[in-house]
Amino acid sequence: MKKLALVLVISVLVFSVVGCNANNETGSQTDIKNQSEEVKDLNNDEDKNKTLDEKIIVYVSGPEEMINKLEETFEAERGDVIDMIKMSCGQVRSKVWAEQESGKIQADIIWGSDPLIYNKLEEKNLLEKVNIEDIQNIKDIKDEYVLKDKNYILVNERYITIMYNKNDFKEEQLPKSYDDLTKKQYKDMLVIADASQSSTALAITSAIYQMKGMEYLKKLKDNGVFLSKSNGQVPSKIMEGQFSLGIGPHDSVVRLKNKAKKDGYEMPVEIIWPSEGAIAIQRPIALVRDDTRSEEQTKVANEFINFIISKKAQKITEKFGFASVRKDIENKYIPESQNIVKIDWGRALLDEEKLTEYYKELFQR
Q: pLDDT tens-digit profile of 301-346?
């Protein structure tokens, strides 16, 4: 059945340097409904008797080059045992949710997006319990990232910051906080991703709501904020000169800077660490509950999860801008003195329906 599942993702989005944020990082209710219809027939025909030679299926978001490198590194030691199905963060969220509503998630492992979708799956008892004996690299994760009461593991962290085009401002003209972005002097300058189309943008909006309340979103709208389809478009539109400011993940700027350095051109987008703090969004990984999975398949799946939090794999993901959760890898992306804002993911789950309804009314009326 899982081989048939691959047919559904043959045309999956090809990732550019912006990685998780592809041309259309969507996770809307429309997408979920459409994908539910797609997987119904798939589940009805499913062969429950899996064979030992079936590969482990991984739904993953992230830069294509990074994902390919990780797959090559793991399979160099283990053999051709996994299929990495690359999607945007929003596609991971919407596809997984659509499949569970239709009766079965086709992936063995889910990696990427943010904790919100994992908490939803955990509520439905759809994630396997983390077995420390099978995933021994957990002992090397920093204490702040160890989740004793969750059935998923935090793999990386990214930070939501203010971005700007350095050609558009003098130092004294720059905003210093999220609150500054609502001032008239920055009217029509700001771009952020649309939370109704991007799962990461929904996480950002949840964090802003927790920090500033609903009124802040209205202030942004009144000040002429532009909504892009994805977070990847935020630094791109700033770099192209369409906007001067943005709110988005730091790692997309890191990758654009690396590419500019490699190709020999100037990259004018820089980062401001806001005075309120940089919003932290973690990238989890989890094993999907599946009673038909063989012991050998479960062993391979756990080996892959253990590999992803190994030092070898974490050094690869770090090169693409993602902060490591390991004790033995220094976080070089965020200043030591910078305050970090942690999202209350439990509250975000409770607030999601109310927030999305308000957001839709505010920005789509």
A: 999 999 999 999 999 999 999 999 999 999 999 998 899 999 999 9
Nearest residue to 311 via CA among 146, 158, 136: 136
CATH label of the domain that carries residue 254: 3.40.190.10
What is the C-alpha separation between 276 and 241, in angstroms, rounded? 27
* Cα–Cα dist 246/113, whole Å: 20
**Residue positions counted in the chain:** 365
CA distance 74 to 119: 28
Spatial contact of 123 and 345, defined as CB atoms under 8 Å apart: no
SS3 per-residue string spanning the chain: CHHHHHHHCCCCCCCCCCCCCCCCCCCCHHHHHHHHHHHHHHHHCCCCCCCCCCCEEEEEECCHHHHHHHHHHHHHHHCCCEEEEEECHHHHHHHHHHHHHCCCCCCCEEECCCHHHHHHHHHCCCECCCCCCCCHHHHHECHHHCCCCCCCEEEEEEEEEEEEECCCCCHHHCCCCCHHHHCHHHCCCEEEECCCCCHHHHHHHHHHHHHHCHHHHHHHHHCCCEEECCCCHHHHHHHCCCCCEEEEEHHHHHHHHHHHHHHCCCCCEEEECCCCCEEEEEEEEEEECCCCCCHHHHHHHHHHHHHHCCHHHHHHHHHCCCEECECCCCCCCCCCCCCEEECCHHHHHHHHHHHHHHHHHHHHC
Please check whether residues 111 and 59 belong to one and the same domain: yes
Count how many domains the chain has.
2
Residue 315 neighbours by CB under 8 Å, 6+ apart: 324, 329
Q: What is the pTM of this model?
A: 0.85
Q: For residue range 51-68, what is the model confidence (pLDDT) as tens digits?
A: 446 899 999 999 999 999
The first and second tokens of residue 33, run together, are: 């409904």
Range of the domain at 260: 158-280+344-364
Between the two ends of the chain, the Cα-to-Cα distance in Å is 42
For residue 243, which phi and psi values (nearest 5 degrees)? -140, 160
CA distance 53 to 228: 43
Same-domain status, 235 and 253 = yes
